[in-house]
Amino acid sequence: MTAMVKAEGVHKSYGAAHILRGIDLEVQNGEVFCLIGPSGSGKSTFLRCINHLEKINAGRLSVDGQLVGYRQKGDKLYELKDSEIAAQRRDIGMVFQRFNLFPHMTALANVMEAPIQVKGETKAVARERAERLLDRVGLRDKAGNYPSQLSGGQQQRVAIARALAMEPKLMLFDEPTSALDPELVGDVLDVMRDLAESGMTMVVVTHEMGFAREVGDSLVFMDGGVVVESGNPRDVLTNPQHDRTKAFLSKVL
Amino acid sequence: MTDKFDKDKVDKVPAGASPAPTEIPPEAIKAIPVRHYGRWVAGVVVVALLVLLGVAFSQGDVRWATVPEKLFDPSILEGLGNTVLISVASMALGLVLGVVFAVMRLSKNPVTSTVAWLYIWIFRGTPVYVQLLIWFNLALIFPIFNIGFYKDEMTDVMTPFLAALLGLGLNEGAYMAEIVRAGIQSVDEGQTEASHALGMSQAKTMRRVVLPQSMRVIIPPTGNEFINMLKTSSLVVAVQYPDLLRAAQDIASTSFAVMEMFFVASIWYLILTSVFSVGQFYLERHYARGSLRSLPPTPWQKVKANLARFSNREAVTR
């Protein structure tokens, strides 16, 4: 297996706040990679670095063998142009905690938007795929609804369909169920489980330990901007080695 | 007691629509309503003042017959057309400039944002009347208009229409820039992030995601701006532009019906602002898509709904 995401000594700070303090990890092709940790541990920040929504200050971060946001020539790094960064992001889908659906478009139009605007697909092709994807997330009958007419769980499933419409090779999930009412979490996790079974490479920041244990292939516990512990989810969750991991898990499990 | 009260309240809501046949209808509360003496007094005072105003006008030396007579005078209608033309043209120029300068103001480039700031500072900070006069008298400092491939006398280039358009449009652009900027900034940052994460470029994100959503914030003040523009356009009299007010004044100076002609102009201004207010309602409704669960009904839909309810009620009571 080859590494889809590779991070070496990644640092990120906002002014004086040092959020990431040297992250080293590898996400293998086709695996579900879960990031857990207390809030403020930097897990969401790291996820946002993967598609260059945040710029890293030090270290190296690459997706599918390509540096994120830079090009290397000899031993010099060149910043990528905005259009080149946009091109890199096409292959990386992202699902946000707050859904961030486009509220002025119907569910169907949300899913069709990027393929038409970015890939220049025809409406007919984009619509056909969008309908198939909405069907896959169980929302075919909601295609004509605006986001404000959908529940949180339905919105998040549309958001997943929207990301999948670009046919990404990597999907990033930033606490996808944290903003949902408890009874709606299951539907979203079902969609993610289905996606994992189809072989999609997924990096998931989550508080759903059950999901991590069942679906995850690898798990990393982060705290204070560093990776504290990593390994097989079942091992880490049932038999944590590190004190900080134990303390965190005793609170959330 | 409280139990009974609550029950009444709950039961009453659906009662009007479809009362459940098996339930015993709750007894309606019979209470003596509060007397609002203050409202009566205020109503009487206001009506009395209106009557006084009417009496005063009836005794004034106004030749009322002149007003309807001159309302559709060809020169008034021509002036009216010119007022609409210059207002729409100036507003269009203001809108375009507003979007351009708002985007410049928000850009990361310090040169463009400073230039935009300067533009807004100057054109919002000086009276529009003075700006009109400056454009109109530009020939005093630049007698010849020369941009390389085109050269002419400035007095021929700077027609009353162009002076009016530049004066009103550039002034409006400064106000619109601030309105558009507020609209752009009102759109949640998550929208931009989601768009970027999908691989959309800066320009497409602005055009497809941010601007359409900012419209909801931009349209209401823009409607106000346009209604203001219809009225402010009367200042173009200063640059010899033949607008509605100018036409009214021309007739007034020959017929000596001065006040009557001002009334004629006022009636047309009122009609214009009323018509465009209706247009604004429909525009706002259009851009409310997605932000409201259900759109507010149009006046026509309200009428239809009321009629339907009325006939339903009749059917029920019968």
Automatic annotation (TrEMBL), chain A:
Extract the GO molecular function terms from the UniProt entry. Answer: ATP binding; ATP hydrolysis activity; ATPase-coupled polar amino acid-transporter activity
Catalytic reactions of this protein: a polar amino acid(out) + ATP + H2O = a polar amino acid(in) + ADP + phosphate + H(+)
Source superkingdom: Bacteria
Q: Which UniProt keywords apply?
A: Amino-acid transport, ATP-binding, Cell membrane, Membrane, Nucleotide-binding, Transport
Q: Which GO terms describe its cellular component?
A: plasma membrane
Q: Which SUPFAM superfamilies match?
A: P-loop containing nucleoside triphosphate hydrolases (SSF52540)
Under the heading InterPro entries, the entry gives: AAA+_ATPase, ABC_ATPase_HisP-typ, ABC_transporter-like_ATP-bd, ABC_transporter-like_CS, MetN_ABC_transporter-like, P-loop_NTPase
ABC transporter domain segment(s) = 5-249
Its main localization is membrane
Similarity comment text for this entry: Belongs to the ABC transporter superfamily.
Protein name, UniProt field: ABC-type polar-amino-acid transporter
From TrEMBL, chain B:
The family assignment reads: Belongs to the binding-protein-dependent transport system permease family.
Cellular compartments per GO CC:
ATP-binding cassette (ABC) transporter complex
The primary location reported for this protein is membrane
Gene Ontology biological process terms in this record: amino acid transport
A Pfam family that this protein carries is: BPD_transp_1
Cross-referenced NCBIfam families: HEQRo_perm_3TM
Q: Where in the cell is it found?
A: Cell membrane
Gene Ontology MF: a single term: transmembrane transporter activity
Q: Where is the composition biased (Basic and acidic residues)?
A: 1-12
Q: What is the lineage of its organism?
A: Bacteria, Bacillati, Actinomycetota, Actinomycetes, Kitasatosporales
What protein am I looking at?
ABC transporter permease
